[in-house]
From TrEMBL:
It comes from the Bacteria. It holds the Pfam family MaoC_dehydratas. Coiled coil: none annotated. Signal peptide: none annotated. This is Dehydratase.
Amino acid sequence: MNIPRYSEVQVGDLLPPLVLPPVNRTTLALYAGASGDHNQVHIDLDFARKSRQPDVFAHGMLSAAYLGRLLTQWVPQPQIRNLAVRFVGITHLGHVPTCTGKVIDKFEQDGETRVRIALTCSNQYGEPRLTGEAVVALA
């Protein structure tokens, strides 16, 4: 991993995007098992339909994990100081999650040089499913 340096990063820089495979039932089952989140709306078609949904849909925290992966492909995990997300849409079966990040601020705090990154996880239609921000320490 080529870790970015604070002096080399500029406001407006983009992180390398992370494009994931389409969400399918196996993805949801594996995530439910790994996370312990067995909410039926994500894994049971009958329950999802009773909840007025056309089908099961992805856990919001799955997309949050994808945003975490976007960050850890850019810097080692110990450099992440904060990660906050907001759920703004449903990720349906067949959606292709694409995670992007943009440096929006450079600052110093607690004796460290840091950058603030605007984050988005969108589907293949460019519709945001999650938005958020992260703060990362850079040397």
